Amino acid sequence: MSVRATARITAVRDARGATTLPVLESDGPLALRRTRAVVPGVARVTVVGAMSAPLGGDRLAVQVRAGQGARLTVDSAAATVALPGPGPEAAAAHYAITLKAEEGAELHWLPEQLISAHGSELHMTTVAELATTARLVLREEQILGRHGETTGTLLSRLTVHRAGRPLLDQQLAYGPAAPGGWDGPAVLGGYRAAGQLLVVDPAFDDRGPDARLLGATAVLTRLAGPAVLVSVLAADARELRAVLDRAAEELAAAARGRAPAAAHG
Amino acid sequence: MHLDHAHSGPAALGADAARPDGTRRALRIGLGGPVGSGKTATVAALCRALRDQLSLAVVTNDIYTREDAAFLLRNAVLPPERIQAVETGACPHTAIRDDISANLEAVEDLEDTVGPLDLILVESGGDNLTATFSKGLVDAQIFIIDVAGGDDIPRKGGPGVTTSDLLVINKTDLAPYVGSDLGRMARDAAQQRGELPVAFTSLTSGEGVGPVADWVRGQLASWTS
Amino acid sequence: MSRAALLVLSDGRFPAGGHAHSGGAEAAVVAGRIRNADDLAAFCRGRLHTTGLTAAALAAAAAHGHDPLALDEAADARTPSPALRAVARKLGRQLMRAARATWPGEELDAFALARPRGGHQPVVLGLTARSAGLAPEDAAHCAAYETVGGPATAVVRLLSLNPFDATAVLARLAPELDHVAELAAAAARGPIGELPAFSAPLLDIAAEAHAARPVRLFAS
């Protein structure tokens, strides 16, 4: 039987400047735990995958809101594996993520990988609404197929609005039900791990790293707004994460106005 | 649906003699010719000869690099903001004749950013003998060949040799070494071109570009009169 | 509507600067990802269904009459690569020049005035189609065809590929081109925010690599 679940997180800044979590609602397979912050003053929530999800037919949602001045990191305990639903006629699974960051808020959305298992079909949407002075760090990684298997179908759309205006709108379609050419020389070129890191920071309005390659299949680009997007293709999840981690470090330093770490290739 | 509406606003066509604000735009002279005939060297020499009297800029059309622009920059014949490179997708003659949109943009950008200008030289990438500039892009064109390319080129003709407003036969200093007969080239050129002028140049000396510079000054005088 | 106007607009000889661009094909050739006609077909198919659909939808939406400035903003959001944004605006400006000479109109004038450095090419293309009396689906067809026509022509030059093979690649894509144009025209009837936004990671990555390369035949 398919599952419908919506988990909700609201973070607010209290009178003393600390971030509290007045809303922390787990639902079905989406179990939320407040975990120990890595950075002092930043609330951290970990999505604990209580069961393998999403399966075909499931409709999952995570809604995150960082109120004015709140600082929140949301991560996950394990990779999410999209699996086929039971039965031959199983529908696609849907996973909807909404992220809201109000003025002065800082929201880090850092889930583990999304793995598209053979035979699965997942439609994923991520919508971020940012206030002008909000900051967002968002990572997403897609692994096409578990070890040694062909990929399922993964359709995803990432939409980011800042101050009500579109900043980034990006759809991806991979796998057997995607239109042709997704695996070819214009799109994935045979790579099975794709990921990106988006950093939106008002500091990038007038300064920020210029576009450059971070390797043969990795690029750092500056969007038409105070934001940087790092796009990476890699042979596997580990290689992908290594490139994204290095980029994250560099961008964190750049946003704080420090000289970026030594260039890496 | 809008075909009968009176068109206003900024000029849509490049050959208009006036800029959108009504002032006279710069004279545009195209320089074309085969690979290695000395187009870039001629542009450089013209810049040196004219830059003190005129407000000048250059557009280059390279084939697969920005080398011509880089050469002009390196030799500092003009400040860098006065040199623009247009990329041509391996077909310089397309960019100067069939689809001049990128070149028109380059000349307009130059007028906007460093203008007002008296003269813009538009250099084509080396191409074959049929390459000519569109009248929508330039007001006059110079075709440059050299004696080392063979003294039968003027006889063979082709649009560049026969119709250019000035034919330049360059590297005359090499004639004795490559067995080219300058007299024969002059006679053949006259036969192909009728009244259209021909200039013989050797750019190894500082004064070598003189005849071309004089011709450009003449063009400019009639353009501004 | 005049069907012949569509032929004029989609003709590779329409003087709007496209000849200097390979649509990412040169970078793919340099990286060894296009070596033959099969690779070209896979490249064109991938580009068509990703940035091709995105461009076709923007063009159809502009032809439909959506606000071109809002579409221009939507195009920016759909183009993370600064190199590709620059190319899109450069080509948009070049197309605008040709459009105003061929099918002059007040909407073109207004957009040219609002975006003097050039609007995104698909938006200008849609406005041009509108000014020529063409339908949104025509604009989408034109944008979709450009997505694959440019790379095919470029690869003929870059690899000395047999031009008959390259043209056959395009011919075999015709049903998919029609399909993409239909999808784009249908999307154009909806809100701008829901227009397709398909992207292709390798096109973005390779575009920045290409822009940084000192020696190249094509501008993009």
Can you describe this structure?
The complex is a heterotrimer of chains A (265), B (225) and C (220). Chain A has 265 residues and is mainly β. Chain A is built from one helix and 18 strands. In chain A, 7% of the residues lie in helices and 49% in strands. Chain A is globular. Chain A starts with a strand and ends in a 10-residue tail after the last helix. Chain B is α/β, with parallel strands linked by helices. In chain B, 36% of the residues lie in helices and 17% in strands. Chain B has helices at 39-50, 67-74, 92-98, 101-114, 153-156, 159-163, 175-178, 182-193, 210-224; strands at 27-32, 56-62, 83-87, 119-123, 140-146, 166-170, 198-200. In chain B, strands 3-2-4-1-5-6-7 form a seven-stranded parallel sheet, with helices on both faces. Residues 1-14 of chain B have low confidence and may be disordered. Chain C is mainly alpha-helical. Chain C has one domain: Orthogonal Bundle (Urease accessory protein UreF). The chains are: A mainly beta (265), B alpha/beta (225), C mainly alpha (220). The A-C interface holds A 157, 159-160, 165-173, 178-189, 194, 211-213, 216-219, 221-225, 229, 231-233 and C 24, 28, 31, 33-34, 39, 42-50, 73-74, 76-83, 85, 176, 193, 196-205, 208-209, 211-212.
